[in-house]
Specification:
Alpha-Beta Plaits, alpha+beta
């Protein structure tokens, strides 16, 4: 069952974000994750949503995504992620 991982964010520091993306990419791939795309202008059709940036990834399943998120290689990037922007992460299986 494929899992979709959505990252909604508001960028605070573009240079730190670029570094975060570069450094987190290998850990995503290591857990079977694949980058699908990103858009800086999220269109809200109903309700309120505070983040303009949306990134989409796929993982083999939500357990793989959780393993990536909990991995030591990813967790050591927490400070860099927090410097780069404010984010909300969501994962779901389909």
């Amino acid at each position: 069952m494929t899992a979709y991982f959505l990252a909604f964010g508001t960028v605070k520091d573009p240079e730190r974000l670029a570094e975060y993306i570069e450094r987190s990419g290998p850990s995503v791939a290591q857990h079977g994750g694949k980058y699908v795309g990103v858009d800086e202008q999220t269109v809200v059709l109903l309700g309120e949503h505070k983040h303009p940036r949306t990134a989409l990834f796929t993982f083999p399943d939500s357990a793989s995504c959780q393993a990536w998120f909990d991995s030591a290689s990813y967790q050591k990037l927490e400070g860099l992620r927090e410097d780069a922007g404010d984010f909300v992460f969501i994962v779901f299986d389909v």
